[in-house]
Design goal:
- It is a single chain.
- The chain is 43% helix and 0% strand.
- The chain has 6 helices and no strands.
- The protein has helices spanning 36-39, 47-56, 59-67, 73-79, 83-87, 99-113.
C-alpha cells in the first residue's frame, strides 16, 4: 500500500482505501426536540407554528394556530412576562423575536376582523 504524504494526491476511486476517521460510515440522524421558545412558554403555545404563518402573511391561520392552545392571545400578549423571548435561539445572533408583540397583534386583528372560533 502506498503511503501518501501531505503533498501527495489520490487517484480517482482510491479515497475509500485511506480512511481518515469514522465519519465515512456515520449517517446523520434527526432528533426531534421541542424548540426552546415552546419549552419555556407557560401557555404551552407553539410559536414556531404561528410565526411561520405570519411570515407567509396568513394572519388568520396564524391566529387559529395560537387559539388551538390559548383562547386569549390578545390578553396573554399583554400580561405574559414572555419567557419565550429569553429562550429564543435568535437571541444568540442579534435579538430575540418579539413573540409577545406578534401574539398581541394577532389577537387584536381577530377582534378587528371578526375572526370567530
Amino acid at each position: 500500500m502506498t503511503k501518501l504524504t501531505r503533498g501527495a494526491f489520490a487517484y480517482p476511486g482510491t479515497t475509500l482505501a485511506y480512511k481518515t476517521g469514522g465519519w465515512r460510515e456515520k449517517i446523520p440522524t434527526h432528533r426531534p426536540a421541542v424548540a426552546p421558545c415552546q419549552h419555556v412558554c407557560p401557555a404551552g403555545e407553539n410559536p414556531q407554528a404561528y410565526l411561520a404563518l405570519v411570515e407567509q402573511g396568513d394572519y388568520e391561520a396564524a391566529w387559529r394556530a395560537i387559539v388551538e392552545t390559548n383562547p386569549m392571545p390578545s390578553v396573554t400578549g399583554r400580561v405574559c412576562p414572555h419567557p419565550c423571548e429569553t429562550g429564543c435561539n435568535r437571541g444568540r445572533y442579534d435579538e430575540p423575536l418579539a413573540i409577545h408583540g406578534i401574539e398581541r397583534f394577532l389577537g387584536d386583528e381577530s377582534h378587528k376582523r371578526g375572526w370567530g372560533f
